[in-house]
């Protein structure tokens, strides 16, 4: 079996899967992928950014295995002007979120406030309120629970308005645009995840 690796910029309002309701926007709408290729992990429907697909199960397991602590960086636009204290709390590993009906204490992370990143406009703009500012953070996690970033920013009082996964390990969105699909050379992929 030939091993294939793809990087995509998952657009807003698309499911990270190949099957769904007739009206759903699905990964297969972007490209004619081989039948045995699946996404590595997920981004929820309203999140955007880097998603990897492959038919290499060993590689998929290496990316997803929590023991490998592979960093994933998200650019997150939040409601209000986030404080240094909230950024420290997001990084400290002290926040508890609900996951599968149980409390989960998140692992330590990296968080810093950033200038508005150069990102393509979202297909549906975020709701803006004139009197309430927004701000951006770069949040790097080494675990991935369902809707974790959104739960974490809500826990510190700064709800997520827009969420874009910028990188997985050494692989970054770069100049990709929503809906772009790039087939990656297996040597590049393995090199980017071998540390």
Automatic annotation (TrEMBL):
Any matching Pfam family: PseudoU_synth_2
Gene3D superfamilies listed in its UniProt record: Alpha-L RNA-binding motif, Pseudouridine synthase I, catalytic domain, N-terminal subdomain
E.C. numbers: 5.4.99.-
Keyword Repeat: no
Domain Pseudouridine synthase RsuA/RluA-like: 5-155
Principal EC category: isomerase
The keyword Isomerase is annotated on this UniProt entry: yes
PROSITE patterns: PSI_RSU
Keywords in alphabetical order: Isomerase
InterPro entries: PsdUridine_s_RsuA/RluB/E/F_cat, PsdUridine_synth_cat_dom_sf, PsdUridine_synth_RsuA/RluA, PsdUridine_synth_RsuA/RluB/E/F, PsdUridine_synth_RsuA/RluB_CS, RsuA_PseudoU_synthase, TruA/RsuA/RluB/E/F_N
Single Gene Ontology BP annotation: rRNA processing
Family statement drawn from the similarity comment of this UniProt entry: Belongs to the pseudouridine synthase RsuA family.
Protein name, as recorded: Pseudouridine synthase
Organism: Brumimicrobium oceani
